[in-house]
Amino acid sequence: MSEVRIIAVIGAGTMGRSIAQAAAVGGFRTILEDILPNALRKAEDAIRAELGRAVSTGSVEQREADAALARIEYASNLEDAARDADMVIEAVPDELESKLEIFVLLDKVCRPETMIVSHTQIQSITELASVIYRAPKCIAMWFPKPPQTSVALEIVRGLETSDETATAAVAVAQRMKREPILLRETPGAITARMQALISNEAFKMLGEGLASAEEIDRALQQGLGLPMGPIAEAEQYGLERRLRMMEYLHKTLGETYRPAPLLEQYVKANKRALAVSR
Ligand SMILES: NC(=O)c1ccc[n+]([C@@H]2O[C@H](COP(=O)([O-])OP(=O)(O)OC[C@H]3O[C@@H](n4cnc5c(N)ncnc54)[C@H](O)[C@@H]3O)[C@@H](O)[C@H]2O)c1
């Protein structure tokens, strides 16, 4: 397999722009694509601001930041973005139909040797790869949040992912200054599965009336050394998205993952947990 030089990222939202930034800092020529021009403008501003912050904290040197910015191109058309890429990472919203559509399109426009990566929390890379002709060249990567600073990067092999693709994905992750963890396919991978379970448990405790949402969050954040309280984290992630994740984990992994009734109620009522319990 030839060396990866050009990475295209499809979808310039929260994760896509951070992945593009990590790729550019890692020395790859990077093309960031989105269907919405406004998303591209926001992504460009966010990457500049984020690199500026990294320079001010000393984690990146000014000349590295300038070189990274110069390596990023922005595209509003998938074909233009993916045509020359050695690896394409899709980071569009986690809906099966959207991801399948992107995979089929990429299979048509990419060179035969190009690897296709899905940045997904809940879709099966085996299923995504099953609709295209290059399943051995497909793999999933998952940057935990916050993607700018989280070092671990989970890399999930599908049923047909080749050793070559897995090795190349690990090498790309290392150049992005991440610590790759290569794992077998499992719903939610490692971090998302545990994160979902912790916030679901916090909602169960809230439903049992153990304490207020703020107190439960404070206890868990301080007691477990978490970066933020699990209820606040779920709100930031989106309660509806978290409920969908729990439903998926419940369906695939069993009873341990049954969604907390209070989480279901808050989603139905369109309420935020912390606001409701105040
Ligand atoms: N945000 C998180 O907490 C998080 C964490 C880990 C993994 N993920 C996963 O990363 C992926 C992206 O999530 P996000 O939070 O960045 O989403 P987001 O909604 O912030 O961004 C998605 C972007 O994709 C663009 N898009 C939609 N359809 C497109 C298409 N056909 N072609 C090109 N661009 C298109 C949208 O315009 C949007 O800018 C999802 O699979 C998600 O599950 C998200």
Automatic annotation (TrEMBL):
Q: Could you give a GO molecular-function term held by this entry? A: NAD+ binding
Q: Where is the 3-hydroxyacyl-CoA dehydrogenase NAD binding domain?
A: 7-185
Q: What is its EC number?
A: 1.1.1.157
| Classification via InterPro entries | 3-OHacyl-CoA_DH (IPR022694), 3-OHacyl-CoA_DH_NAD-bd (IPR006176), 3HC_DH_C (IPR006108), 6-PGluconate_DH-like_C_sf (IPR008927), 6PGD_dom2 (IPR013328), NAD(P)-bd_dom_sf (IPR036291)
Instruction: Please report a single Pfam family linked to this protein.
Output: 3HCDH_N
Q: Top EC class per UniProt?
A: oxidoreductase
Gene source species: Koribacter versatilis (strain Ellin345)
UniProt entry keywords in alphabetical sequence:
Oxidoreductase
Protein origin, superkingdom:
Bacteria
Put simply, this protein is called 3-hydroxybutyryl-CoA dehydrogenase
Q: Single Gene Ontology BP term?
A: fatty acid metabolic process
The residue ranges of the 3-hydroxyacyl-CoA dehydrogenase C-terminal domain are: 190-271
